[in-house]
Every structure is written in C-alpha cells, then in structure tokens.
Amino acid sequence: MQNLSENQKQNSPMYISFCTQKGGAGKSVFTTLAASWLHYELGFSIAVIDCDYPQWSIHKLREREKEQITKNGFYKKKAYELCKKIGKRTYPVVPVQPETALTKANEFLATEEINYDLVLFDLPGTVNNKSVVELFFNMDYLFVPITTSRINMESTLNFIVTVSDIIQKNPQIRLKQVQTFWNRMTGRERQELYVAYENAMHELNIPIMQTRIPQSVRYDREQSISGNDYLFLSTVFPPDKPLLKGSNWDLFMNDF
Ligand SMILES: Nc1ncnc2c1ncn2[C@@H]1O[C@H](COP(=O)(O)OP(=O)(O)OP(=O)(O)O)[C@@H](O)[C@H]1O
Ligand SMILES: [Mg+2]
C-alpha cells in the first residue's frame, strides 16, 4: 500500500489486472471481488475497465444487479444502507474494447471529478492478441491465479518467466511485477506438492502470495432472483460476512 499512497500523491491511479494466458481461470471473478472489497470495505476509490469485449462479464453483472435492485426490496434496502454508511455510490464499470482500452480509460479518468486510487482492468480470455499484450505491459502490477494442475502450472510459469524477462530488459515498460496466487485449492492436494512448486517458483524468482483461495461454490454466488440470500460475488456489495468464513478472501485482500 506504500506504492498506492505514492501514486495518490501524484493523483495518478495504480493500474492492476488479474491476468492469465488461460481462459476461465477466475479473472473476472477476482477483479469484481477485489474492486468491491477495496471500494466498499476499505474505502478506496476504484474504477473497473471491462476490456473483455464482447463478453463484458463485469459490465453485464452490474447491469443484472442494477435491475435486480429495482425489483427486489431486500437488495434495494441493503444498497441504500450501504450507500448511507460509506457515503459514496457504486464504483464505475466502463465497458471498452481491448484495442482502445488504454485511451478510453485515460479519457474516462480525465473527465471524472474524483481521483481514483486504483483502476482494475478485466482482460479478455487469451493473450494471443497484440492489444491484450500491450494492455498488460501497461499495468503496474499483474496478479496471476495458478492451480496445481501440471499443465496449467507449466504454461503459467512459462508465461510469467517470459513476461518477467521482457520487463527486466525494458525498464521503460510500466509493468513492475507479476504476482501469483494459488486458486481452486481442494484440500486433496498434498502439502508437499505446494512446497515443491513454491520452491521451484522461488528458484525462478516468481513471487507467490501466502493466502490460497479454495475451490468453493460461493465464488459464483450472486444476488438471488427472488430471495434475500447471502451473496458473495457482486459489483454493488462486498461479500456477506457469513460467506467470508472459509473463503480466505479477507486474508487474501490483506496480502494484496
Ligand atoms: N476458487 C474458485 N472456486 C470456485 N469457482 C471458481 C473459483 N475461481 C474461479 N471460479 C469459477 O470459474 C469460472 C470462471 O471464472 P471467470 O469468469 O472469472 O474466469 P475468466 O478468467 O474471467 O474467464 P474468461 O477467460 O472467459 O474471461 C466462474 O464460474 C468462477 O466462479
Ligand atoms: Mg472474464
């Protein structure tokens, strides 16, 4: 957070992205959860730039949630109370195309009245695309989810080693560091496996976060259509406290 306050002083937000070379790895889910935690729980000013055209999953989640709040009295009251408590509204989710994402993000930030602390970019599923590569080299930090699957591990490590090599040789690049974390831990993996992988990553100079994210259905849990259930994944609310237990999300955000 030291860097964050340095950035704040210069009024230029930090750019962050959850990123992998692999689709369906949790990029949009972690982007949403991190944005909501930082904005609603920790009081930072956050913006999300949804670059995953035409999927736009975070933008569409926000639209679904807005509609749901107009129809469902429970969530409407909950949104009103949260807004009153924290004294601010929801964070913006700006849908853009990857080719123009940086320009659009800068235009958006220039026209906003407030200074954002942090901008989270949700990137498309693949990195086999020039504009996506350009985008992630223009972040300040990348956070890469990894699993203990051998195939996933090998391709992800290759990806990180390549990216780290490029940023080391090109100091003018904005990207400063690639940070990894374990996702979808099932409890069936043996502890030795993590230790062996973490040792290998240490040798390669790849940092890994302490907190591991378990495999859990709550990572998909949005507002319910008719009811008043607890929710976890939302652009309007932070995760409900009872669902935080065992999710490791609060611990993960402390590391973050
Ligand atoms: N720890 C977890 N436990 C359970 N489900 C998870 C976990 N992490 C991710 N998922 C699930 O994986 C699915 C894919 O997640 P998400 O849409 O965030 O991936 P993505 O990387 O953004 O995909 P895409 O490449 O299509 O944009 C979602 O259904 C999400 O809930
Ligand atoms: Mg996505």
Major beta sheet summary: 6 strands, parallel
Give the spatial strand order of the biggest sheet. Answer: 3-2-4-1-5-6
CATH architecture: 3-Layer(aba) Sandwich
Global Rg: 18 Å
CATH topology: Rossmann fold
Binned, the helix content reads 40-55%
**Multimeric status of the protein:** single chain
Number of domains: 1
Number of helical regions? 10
Overview of this structure, please?
With 256 residues, this protein is an alpha/beta fold. The protein has one domain (13-251): Rossmann fold, CATH 3.40.50.300. Helices cover 45% and strands 12% of the residues. It has ten helices and six strands, in the order αβαβααβαβαβαβααα. The protein has helices at residues 2-9, 27-41, 57-71, 73-86, 101-111, 130-137, 150-169, 191-203, 241-244, 249-255, and strands at 14-18, 46-50, 93-95, 118-122, 141-146, 177-182. Strands 3-2-4-1-5-6 form a six-stranded parallel β-sheet, with helices on both faces. Strand 5, helix 7 and strand 6 form a beta-alpha-beta unit. Helix 3 (57-71) packs across helix 4. The model is unreliable at 4-9 (pLDDT under 50). The structure holds adenosine-5'-triphosphate and magnesium ion. Adenosine-5'-triphosphate (ATP) binds at residues 23-29, 52, 57, 125, 183-184, 213, 215-216, 219-220.
